[in-house]
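User: Could you walk me through two proteins back to back? I'd like the raw sequence and the structure tokens for each, with a short line separating them so I can tell where one ends and the next begins.

Assistant: Of course. Protein one, sequence then structure:
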Amino acid sequence: MEITNVTEYEAIAKEKLPKMVYDYYASGAEDQWTLKENRNAFARILFRPRILIDVSKIDMTTTVLGFKISMPIMVAPTAMQKMAHPEGEYATARAASAAGTIMTLSSWATSSVEEVASTGPGIRFFQLYVYKNRKVVEQLVRRAEKAGFKAIALTVDTPRLGRRESDIKNRFTLPPNLTLKNFEGLDLGKMDEANDSGLASYVAGQIDRTLSWKDVQWLQTITSMPILVKGVLTGEDARIAIQAGAAGIIVSNHGARQLDYVPATISALEEVVKATQGRVPVFLDGGVRRGTDVFKALALGASGIFIGRPVVFSLAAEGETGVRKVLQMLRDEFELTMALSGCRSLSEITRNHIITEWETPRHLPRL
């Protein structure tokens, strides 16, 4: 069967992967309300396309923290990619580089920062979890910087791991042939078997629950890399993030894997964008499966989006080729959406190109 959209990879991944692995990638927290809402909320945003505009040339290029990329579609950090495919993060890194976009490597990758850097050129960010042992954090950040990573995406929504019931049922743990490669030499690379989720036990033992805004400032003293704060859902926190020196904000609910019944990220986006008043770029992850979704996020003020699950599902299905295809399909769909909406560059995508279900016609511009 020919694959014609991003979503179709999920069923193939489900067929190919062991149940424990597929469930780990696919599931959300508790009732999984937010998991469904991350998708459903996009469907409540409609287009107001403008017509009879010359769209023979479409420019999707943009810059993120000063780095030029081919499109505002980037790769989110997803953990333990070698569970999906033997080449894991290597394949993802090559695919992102070939697409001319940014890959974010997870702290909990099954390939190290050095190994990913060895795949060749590419703009890469490093997602950071702050461990109780700050020496470990310092060492990791320095290694990422030395390996040529360009920014830190600091995950701030995980003082404790969300309750993911399929991981509890499956007694999730990292397969014995794999390690969390960045921590291998520090005796933190293995996950013990647990009587619930092995990852939840690992997080409880290693990740720092005392993490606070002062640590965002501390991070800036140990690295010159810009810091993106990942996991902001409110205007209040967006303002504090800027005061704390964040170079950018990622509106994220951790793929609906942490606190259930938070809004979809696309629903929280505009509040965060308004609070930043253009002082720092705002990005979005969560629920993006179509080029139309990318356009909607940009219309609501995002500077770009990140995709997570589509990467691991396509990686499981077809390795590097699959990830390349996902990035290409989203690019092609986004380009088509721009053309059919009458936008030739990202700067032409405005709030007036969409209507949200919660608006009444009086919100619309006067003709």
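----
Protein two, same layout:
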Amino acid sequence: MEQSRNLAQLAALLLGLLGSLGPLAQGSEFQHHRYEDMVRAMFAVHSECPYISRIYSIGRSVEGRHLYVLEFSDNPGIHEALEPEFKYVGNMHGNEVLGRELLIQLCHFLCQEYRAGNHRIRQLIHDTRVHILPSMNPDGYEVAARQGPEFNGYLVGRGNAREMDLNRNFPDLNALMYYYEKSSGRNHHLPLPDNWEQQVEPETMAVIKWMQNYNFVLSANLHGGAVVANYPFDKSRDPRIRGRVTYAASPDDKIFKKLARTYSYAHSWMHEGWNCGDYFEEGITNGASWYSLSKGMQDFNYLSTNCFEITLELSCDKFPPESALPREWLGNREALVSYIEQVHHGIKGMVYDENNNPIGNAEVAVSGINHDVTSGPEGDYYRLLLPGTYTVTASAPGYHPSTSTVTVGPAEAIQLHFHLKSAPKHNLNTKHHHSKKNLSSTKVPTKLGPR
């Protein structure tokens, strides 16, 4: 297995160096982009590729800067049934800037390779709706950029304009999830506290609303300060004991490990493990086994939406010099594309009623994995799975559940559709949901690490 991984990594490296993805994108110079420069670069991409891209804002920062997203699709602005939604989020910590620059470069790359006829990129854009948010924290970036790479401190610009750490600012759904695990409660789309909007920063609010408006399937958020692919859960289940860390597996631990390995082995050196004075086997880590983190975005994605997200730590230097950017791009380019392609594994399909009308918000459960997903408003659902044979059940209020067995292979997602029959009113499918518990006020001390 190790030999095959080494061969896969060598192949990815050689293909990257020899141009498997075509010529290196030249549309964006390797430089640090202040806010105005970033916006110009994004609009330049849209101008160059207007038929496969769209720019939209999900909200504003504390200081009023737009949080711009660049979308790539063969039908921009439109969700197509059975076409999964993917997102990248960069620069959540304002002084961790490599992710921001890589995502700007990725935007240029996708546009230019599509125009050049690159089959792989054209297929990716035709079959996927990709959303790229280069900077979630533009205010913090400006603070860090004023000091520059030479003098930037470990914390200068990390938070937003109010010096709030955005990766400690999401509602704490882990505490609720761990409570429900003990009481056989709800295992997905956990309820938010009644007053959550008063507890979060504008940037966090914008991202949460974004998640609620798009049925994202897969995501990664890009950080700096280490080199490792970090996967859920970030928050430990156990009470904090000084100097002790514990692994906090999610119900989808195996698929999360595979997702993290996909990025690590496609990256030029992350998989080697030794980086920045730390060692992570295979270049991956469970978040809580590294250090426990509360109210993070990664776990929130998994517990509040259908989206599976990992955290990518991409550089030892939080604010690398411009001279380092070309090497970092070459080291991450294949991994950034390969990770997007993972959204096309597992199963996907439609949930219909007996008259072929789509059923939104139907629950799709996989036997043996205690985490359900739901269908979107158009009735389509997506469930990331490893190769294997699974028993899958679709259910919705007012309908009889439907169960099928499916075998998933290593290639494209298998399509599995469900037709639910209406149930008599006295026999409605009323899946019991536990009442909302506001456990987000639990105070847990956290280590201030790269994440």
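The longest strand covers residues 53-60.

Let me know if you want the two compared in more detail.
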